């Protein structure tokens, strides 16, 4: 239950991304700057965190052991996640992007059998098998997704087809890349790194890609405006630092339970609620109609079901939030 609350808080801060990315696009800002500046601004924050906690050297050692997996899955989890998301903001409103993004709540569960294995004890000894999709959690996530689709129906009919497609396809890529990259990096780090270390390492190895995107942005559209720099900094702090840390903490706490992991990932569905509220008050979007309100109730009911299912399988002992110690970490 506690992990779901953490995921819910992460969702609230993540919503800033969709609202401000759309705001920057409406004011003429380049999606390349919106994308690259967020991670460039994130890097000093996590550099300071690992510096003061004196465990940055451990991250570098882990990267040195497996450089290619770190680069590949950090690219998937960060670059293939955020670059398509900001690109999509050029073609669709925040509610469309946030709504389509909810595919991530089922993408993580569906990808499990294809990318993840585990060792199980059999009569013949230990055997490596593919992990199974958590069916109950997947069913509830599909139920939540139905609520998201109801919200989308209010607006989708008013959009041109090409805008609708351009605003959806990149988000579908991002929605699959984010949980896949996150889960694979948890697997690669193997519990040896804590949340801050893992985010720092992923940001570090993906930094060359963001610097390349910022160079392309400068050649293509010149330097970013002051307004875009300020808004991107806000996104970096609220979404990149606070939300990413909360979400990674929640998923790290339940990484050995696929059902609970799916439940935590499903908390991201509540982003639609925050984005709708933010766009109504900040960007003067229309209020939800009766159908959309029904979708909101379905999302909330689905999250309650996920919380109940998660509580049934909760262990009696929990790791204190943010204060657990990774193997080899010096406090």
What would you note in describing this structure?
This protein is mainly α and 331 residues long. The chain has one domain (2-310). It is 76% helix and 4% strand. It has helices spanning 2-26, 31-53, 56-65, 67-88, 94-101, 104-115, 135-156, 161-189, 195-221, 226-253, 258-266, 271-282, 290-312; strands at residues 117-122, 125-130. The chain has a two-stranded antiparallel ribbon with strand order 1-2. A hairpin with a 2-residue loop joins β1 (117-122) and β2. The longest helix is centred in the middle third of the chain and has 29 residues, at 161-189. The chain crosses the membrane at residues 5-24, 30-50, 70-89, 95-116, 137-153, 159-178, 199-219, 231-250, 262-284. InterPro entries: EmrE. Keywords: Membrane, Transmembrane, Transmembrane helix. This is Multidrug resistance efflux transporter family protein. It comes from Thalassorhabdus alkalitolerans.
């Amino acid at each position: 239950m506690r992990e779901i609350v953490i995921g819910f808080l992460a969702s609230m801060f993540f919503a800033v991304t969709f609202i401000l990315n759309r705001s920057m696009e409406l004011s003429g800002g380049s999606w390349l700057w919106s994308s690259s500046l967020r991670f460039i601004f994130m890097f000093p924050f996590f550099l300071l965190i690992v510096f003061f906690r004196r465990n940055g050297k451990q991250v570098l050692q882990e990267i040195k052991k497996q450089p290619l997996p770190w680069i590949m899955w950090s690219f998937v989890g960060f670059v293939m996640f955020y670059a398509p998301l900001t690109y999509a903001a050029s073609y669709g409103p925040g509610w469309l992007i946030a709504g389509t993004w909810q595919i991530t709540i089922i993408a993580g569960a569906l990808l499990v059998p294809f990318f993840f294995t585990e060792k199980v004890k059999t009569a013949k000894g230990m055997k490596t098998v593919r992990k199974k999709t958590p069916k109950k959690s997947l069913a509830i996530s599909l139920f939540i997704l139905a609520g998201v689709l109801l919200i989308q129906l209010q607006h989708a009919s008013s959009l041109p087809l090409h805008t609708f497609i351009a605003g959806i396809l990149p988000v579908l890529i991002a929605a699959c890349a984010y949980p896949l990259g996150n889960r694979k990096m948890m697997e690669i780090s193997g519990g040896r790194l804590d949340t801050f270390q893992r985010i720092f390492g992923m940001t570090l190895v993906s930094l060359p890609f963001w610097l390349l995107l910022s160079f392309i942005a400068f050649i293509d559209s010149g330097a970013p405006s002051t307004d875009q720099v300020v808004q991107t900094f806000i996104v970096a702090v609220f979404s990149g630092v606070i939300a990413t840390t909360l979400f990674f903490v929640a998923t790290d706490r339940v990484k050995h339970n696929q059902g609970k992991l799916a439940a935590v990932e499903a908390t991201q569905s509540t982003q639609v609620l925050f984005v709708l509220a933010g766009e109504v008050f900040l960007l003067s979007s229309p209020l939800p109609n009766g159908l959309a309100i029904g979708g909101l109730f379905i999302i909330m009911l689905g999250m309650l079901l996920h919380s109940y299912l998660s509580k049934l399988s909760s262990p009696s002992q929990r790791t204190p939030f943010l204060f657990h110690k990774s193997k080899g970490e010096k406090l």
